[in-house]
Amino acid sequence: MQIEEIKPRLSFWQIWNMSFGFLGIQFAFALQGGFMSRIFQTLGAEKDDIPILWLAAPLTGLIIQPIVGYLSDRTWHPILGRRRPFFFIGAVFSTIALFFAPYSSALWMAASSLWILDASINISMEPFRALVADKLPDSQRSYGFVVQTLIIGIGTWIASNLPWFMTKIGVPNTAAAGVVPDSVKFAFGIGAIVLFTSILYTILTTKEYPPDNLKKFEKEKAASKGFLKGIKEIFENILDMPKVMLKLGVVQFFSWFAFFTMWTYATPAITEHIFKATDTASLAYNNAADSVGNYLGTYGLISMFFALILAFVTSKVKINRKLVHMLSLISGGIGFISIFYITEPWMLHLCFALVGIAWASILSMPYAMLSSSVDPNKMGIYMGIFNMFIVIPQIIASVGGITTTYKFLFGDEVIYTMVLAGTSLILAGFANLLITDRNATHDG
Question: Could you say which residues form the signal peptide (predicted)?
Answer without folding.
Answer: none
